[in-house]
Amino acid sequence: QVQLVESGGGLVLAGDSLRLSCAASGGPFIFYNMGWFRQAPGREREFVATISRSDWTHYADSVKGRFTISRDNAKNTVYLQMTNLKPEDTAVYYCAADFSPHSSVHTPTAVGEYDFWGQGTQVTVSS
After folding, report:
1. Pairing mode, strands 121-126 and 91-99
2. Each residue of 72-124: pLDDT tens digit?
3. Is the pLDDT of residue 3 over 90?
4. SS (H, E, C) 46-59
5. Minimal CA–CA distance to 117: which of 102, 97, 93?
6. Phi, psi dihedral angles at 29 (to 5 degrees)
Protein backbone atom coordinates (compact mmCIF):
# COMPACT_ATOMS: atom_id res chain seq x y z
CA GLN A 1 0.00 0.00 0.00
CA VAL A 2 1.51 3.30 -1.11
CA GLN A 3 0.64 6.60 0.52
CA LEU A 4 0.99 9.75 -1.56
CA VAL A 5 1.08 13.27 -0.17
CA GLU A 6 1.02 16.28 -2.48
CA SER A 7 2.26 19.74 -1.59
CA GLY A 8 3.17 23.00 -3.26
CA GLY A 9 -0.19 24.25 -4.46
CA GLY A 10 -1.36 27.80 -3.98
CA LEU A 11 -2.76 30.99 -5.47
CA VAL A 12 -0.67 32.59 -8.20
CA LEU A 13 -1.04 35.07 -11.02
CA ALA A 14 -1.19 34.16 -14.68
CA GLY A 15 2.33 33.73 -16.01
CA ASP A 16 3.73 32.63 -12.66
CA SER A 17 5.34 29.30 -11.84
CA LEU A 18 4.73 26.65 -9.19
CA ARG A 19 6.37 23.36 -8.32
CA LEU A 20 4.23 20.58 -6.95
CA SER A 21 5.75 17.73 -4.98
CA CYS A 22 4.40 14.29 -4.21
CA ALA A 23 6.07 12.25 -1.49
CA ALA A 24 5.49 8.51 -1.56
CA SER A 25 5.79 6.06 1.30
CA GLY A 26 4.93 2.46 2.06
CA GLY A 27 6.08 0.85 -1.16
CA PRO A 28 9.02 0.32 -3.52
CA PHE A 29 8.96 3.65 -5.32
CA ILE A 30 11.21 2.43 -8.11
CA PHE A 31 8.51 -0.03 -9.23
CA TYR A 32 5.92 2.68 -9.77
CA ASN A 33 5.13 4.79 -12.78
CA MET A 34 3.98 8.15 -11.45
CA GLY A 35 1.43 10.55 -12.81
CA TRP A 36 -0.22 13.91 -12.23
CA PHE A 37 -3.88 14.54 -12.91
CA ARG A 38 -6.12 17.51 -12.25
CA GLN A 39 -9.78 18.13 -11.70
CA ALA A 40 -11.55 21.44 -12.05
CA PRO A 41 -15.03 22.06 -10.54
CA GLY A 42 -17.72 20.35 -12.58
CA ARG A 43 -15.24 18.53 -14.77
CA GLU A 44 -13.82 15.04 -14.89
CA ARG A 45 -10.36 14.27 -13.64
CA GLU A 46 -7.92 14.67 -16.52
CA PHE A 47 -4.42 13.50 -17.28
CA VAL A 48 -1.61 16.05 -17.00
CA ALA A 49 1.73 14.22 -17.08
CA THR A 50 3.35 10.88 -16.36
CA ILE A 51 6.85 9.57 -15.82
CA SER A 52 7.81 5.93 -16.10
CA ARG A 53 10.19 4.00 -13.90
CA SER A 54 12.97 4.72 -16.39
CA ASP A 55 12.08 8.42 -16.79
CA TRP A 56 10.08 8.20 -20.00
CA THR A 57 7.61 11.09 -19.92
CA HIS A 58 4.34 11.98 -21.59
CA TYR A 59 2.26 15.15 -21.34
CA ALA A 60 -1.22 16.33 -22.12
CA ASP A 61 -1.23 18.66 -25.12
CA SER A 62 -2.60 21.46 -22.96
CA VAL A 63 0.51 21.55 -20.77
CA LYS A 64 3.23 20.45 -23.18
CA GLY A 65 6.09 22.92 -23.19
CA ARG A 66 4.95 24.53 -19.92
CA PHE A 67 4.97 21.68 -17.40
CA THR A 68 7.80 19.28 -16.57
CA ILE A 69 7.47 16.08 -14.59
CA SER A 70 10.47 14.56 -12.84
CA ARG A 71 11.22 12.07 -10.13
CA ASP A 72 13.87 11.59 -7.47
CA ASN A 73 13.97 7.92 -6.55
CA ALA A 74 16.35 8.57 -3.65
CA LYS A 75 13.71 10.83 -2.07
CA ASN A 76 10.66 8.80 -3.19
CA THR A 77 9.30 12.00 -4.67
CA VAL A 78 7.80 13.08 -7.97
CA TYR A 79 7.60 16.72 -9.02
CA LEU A 80 5.56 18.79 -11.41
CA GLN A 81 7.22 22.05 -12.41
CA MET A 82 4.58 24.35 -13.85
CA THR A 83 5.52 27.52 -15.71
CA ASN A 84 3.56 30.18 -17.57
CA LEU A 85 0.46 29.22 -15.66
CA LYS A 86 -2.92 30.13 -17.09
CA PRO A 87 -6.32 30.58 -15.42
CA GLU A 88 -7.48 27.39 -17.15
CA ASP A 89 -4.83 25.48 -15.16
CA THR A 90 -6.87 26.11 -12.02
CA ALA A 91 -7.80 22.76 -10.48
CA VAL A 92 -7.07 20.32 -7.72
CA TYR A 93 -3.93 18.45 -8.73
CA TYR A 94 -3.58 14.79 -7.81
CA CYS A 95 -0.55 12.56 -7.72
CA ALA A 96 -1.01 8.91 -8.68
CA ALA A 97 1.06 5.72 -8.68
CA ASP A 98 0.86 2.79 -11.07
CA PHE A 99 2.51 -0.38 -9.80
CA SER A 100 4.48 -1.69 -12.77
CA PRO A 101 7.19 -4.14 -11.74
CA HIS A 102 7.56 -5.65 -15.21
CA SER A 103 7.73 -2.55 -17.41
CA SER A 104 10.04 0.41 -17.02
CA VAL A 105 8.79 2.37 -20.04
CA HIS A 106 5.04 2.38 -19.54
CA THR A 107 3.50 5.86 -19.44
CA PRO A 108 -0.13 5.42 -18.41
CA THR A 109 -2.56 8.25 -19.09
CA ALA A 110 -5.90 6.86 -17.93
CA VAL A 111 -7.30 7.29 -14.44
CA GLY A 112 -8.09 3.59 -14.26
CA GLU A 113 -4.48 2.60 -14.85
CA TYR A 114 -3.34 3.98 -11.51
CA ASP A 115 -3.51 2.07 -8.27
CA PHE A 116 -2.98 4.74 -5.61
CA TRP A 117 -3.92 8.40 -5.32
CA GLY A 118 -3.03 11.33 -3.13
CA GLN A 119 -5.51 13.69 -1.52
CA GLY A 120 -4.83 16.53 -3.94
CA THR A 121 -3.49 20.07 -3.74
CA GLN A 122 -5.31 23.16 -4.97
CA VAL A 123 -3.78 25.33 -7.67
CA THR A 124 -5.54 28.59 -8.43
CA VAL A 125 -4.34 30.87 -11.19
CA SER A 126 -5.78 34.35 -11.20
CA SER A 127 -5.82 36.62 -14.20
Report:
1. antiparallel
2. 999 999 999 999 999 999 999 999 999 988 877 889 999 999 999 999 999 99
3. yes
4. EEEEEECCCCCEEE
5. 97
6. -55, -35
Per-residue pLDDT at 102: 84
111: exposed, middle or buried (C-beta count within 10 Å: 0-12, 13-18, 19+)? middle
- The whole-angstrom separation of Cα 24 and Cα 6 is 9
* CA gap 93, 10 in Å, rounded: 11
Residue of 56, 34, 37, 59 whose CA lies nearest to 46: 37
**In percent, how much of the chain has pLDDT > 70?**
100
Instruction: With beta carbons less than 8 A apart as the criterion, state whether 107 and 71 touch.
Output: no
Distance CA 56, CA 45 (A): 22
